[in-house]
Write a structure and sequence with these properties.
The protein is α+β, with helices and mostly antiparallel strands. The protein has a domain of 240 residues: ATPase, nucleotide binding domain (Nucleotidyltransferase, domain 5). The strands form seven sheets. The protein has a seven-stranded mixed β-sheet. Strands 3-2-1-5-14-13 form a six-stranded mixed β-sheet, sandwiched between helices. Helix 14 links the parallel strand 21 and strand 22. Helix 13 packs across helix 14. It is globular, with a radius of gyration of 22 Å. The termini are far apart. The model has no long low-confidence stretch (mean pLDDT 94). It binds adenosine-5'-diphosphate. The site of adenosine-5'-diphosphate has 16 residues, from helix 11 and helix 12.
Length: 496
């Protein structure tokens, strides 16, 4: 039993990675699946297609690694969070398309709850803000829209869950209906202090408890896979939400350690230990993990919707670069953005503003402005969005962050990372392995399988690639932030 298998089920693709006992990746398989946009603002997935993509990539990665499933000690699942599936327990078939976290169909319903004054109560119980992003309103919608769903739920015929719970159900041939504390903390139905479904929240969203999975800890094998699926039965650990997995994969396991993932969007989490820090700056309080019998651990989270996606816009919208990495050579042609500033609020602003009425703005354009300045301003804009998250986190947690650990596709940009360090006045540290999501899930599975006896043993697994040191003065940083704030003001309210 020498290997670990991580199943990384993301928003646009599913990946499987086989790791050895030192957490070195031996083989990877990846498959994209269909995104459905049936109406403006709606985003759906076919849960069966997702399951097939996971099954296929798992088999492919095992074959590529040249191992047999019997040699895998444990499977660790990590997944896109909040997306909700409703399925028939007996047939194992979804009864409706999965509603994806990006889906806005319940926005009005959530606005009505906010206007009814429910936000303080929700924030106190769940650490979340009233937004259709989370699962509760989506499940509420499904139970109304699917014919006979209420009666069938009452008769015990239906099961619901986030993607982790769906995959565990399928992997175990329907024997396990379980979710983990991190995924449950994003549903808006779990009391994050108690770590269990909350009767008041279930009543508010009118969700019968019987359709929900049981909530379990991370890194603990909870059932075996059906032998037919991979050729041998393998212990499956509970899932872990993708951002929490990345936090663990970055070994942010001491209070105050922070990571930021630069993907399509940017996600920053700060580990706060056993204390759930209530945010006063519109960040989220979320469960970081629960390792076996140890107490619940928490994190503060802030996310921005458009991060690396702004670079894709330079490529696909403006067509001033042909590939994402080209942004770096283009931006490096100029020493700075020449007074140009881009706020990449293309779909509104996320934390700490939460302003759906904002739109992107490009300011300070002159006759001398070139594509290189715009490329540079794009990198600046991404970094400023992230700087806003870090500043809000420092205010909430009451202490200065000493280093920012980074990962995700756009963290490959040395220029972006240097700009980030310069804006923050804080060193930015990039690990050698930036695939921290799958790594974190594998580490948790490995802990459960006894590969390591303690989290401290994992430090040997994480190697640093490069640390970017700030080169700016405090006065320069203050001046930069002041200009950014001016630009943010211009971006807000544009779509009203
Ligand atoms: P996701 O998991 O959200 O799909 P990834 O972590 O794969 O995203 O990161 C993809 C993003 O990273 C894309 O938006 C792309 O623009 C950006 N990106 C990839 N490579 C580079 C690079 N060398 N320099 C800058 N940005 C990059």
């Amino acid at each position: 039993m020498k290997y670990l298998l991580a199943l990384d089920q993301g928003t646009t693709s599913s990946r499987a990675i086989v790791y050895d006992a030192t957490c070195t990746a031996l083989a990877t398989a990846q498959r994209e699946f269909t995104q459905f946009f049936p109406q403006p603002g709606w985003v759906e997935h076919d849960a069966l297609e997702i399951w097939r993509s996971v099954e296929a990539t798992a088999r492919e990665a095992i074959a590529k690694a040249g191992i047999s499933a019997a040699e895998i000690a444990a499977i660790g699942i990590t997944n896109q969070r909040e997306t909700i599936v409703l399925w028939d327990r007996a047939t194992g078939e979804p009864v409706a398309p999965a509603i994806v976290w990006q889906d806005r169909r319940t926005a009005d319903y959530m606005t009505a709850l906010a206007e009814g004054g429910k936000e303080p109560f929700i924030q106190q119980r769940t650490g979340l803000l009233l937004d259709s992003y989370f699962s509760a309103s989506k499940l509420h919608w499904l139970l109304r829209a699917v014919p006979n769903a209420r009666e069938r739920a009452a008769a015990g015929e239906l099961a619901a869950g986030t993607i982790d719970a769906w995959l565990i159900f399928k992997l175990t041939g329907g024997r396990a209906h379980a979710t983990d504390v991190t995924n449950a903390s994003r549903t808006m139905l779990m009391n994050i202090h108690a770590g269990d479904w909350d009767d008041d929240l279930l009543a508010l969203f009118d969700i019968p408890r019987a359709i929900l999975p049981r909530i379990v800890a991370n890194g603990v094998p909870l059932a075996e896979t059906d032998a037919d699926i991979l050729g041998a039965s393998v212990p499956v650990c509970a899932g872990v939400g993708d951002q929490q997995a990345a936090l663990f994969g970055q070994l942010c396991v001491r209070p105050g350690l922070v990571k930021c993932t630069y993907g399509t969007g940017c996600f920053m989490l700060e580990f706060t230990g056993p204390n759930p820090v209530a945010s006063r700056h519109r960040l989220l309080t979320t469960v970081a993990w629960k390792l076996g019998d140890a107490p619940l651990q928490y994190a503060l989270e802030g996310s921005v919707f458009v991060g690396g996606a702004a670079i894709q816009w330079l490529r696909d919208g403006l067509k001033i670069i042909r590939s994402a990495p080209e942004v770096n050579t283009l931006a490096a042609e100029v020493p700075d953005a020449g007074g140009v500033m881009l706020v990449p609020a293309f779909t509104g602003l996320g934390a700490p503003y939460w302003d759906p009425s904002a739109r992107g703005v490009l300011l300070g354009v002159t006759r001398g402005t070139t594509a290189a300045h715009i490329a540079r301003a794009t990198l600046d804009g991404i970094a400023y969005e992230v700087a806003d998250l870090l500043l809000a986190m420092e205010k909430d947690s009451g202490h200065r962050v000493s280093t920012l650990r980074v990962d995700g596709g756009a963290s490959a940009s040395d220029l972006l990372m240097q700009i980030q360090a310069d804006q923050l006045g804080v060193p930015v540290e990039r690990p050698r392995n930036v695939e921290t999501t799958a790594l974190g899930a594998a580490m948790m599975a490995g802990l459960g399988a006894g590969f390591w006896s303690d989290v401290a043993d994992l430090h040997a697994v994480r190697a640093v690639d490069k640390t970017f040191q700030p080169t700016t003065t405090a006065a320069q940083r203050r001046a930069g932030l002041k200009t950014w704030r001016k630009a943010i003001k211009r971006a807000r309210g544009w779509a009203l």
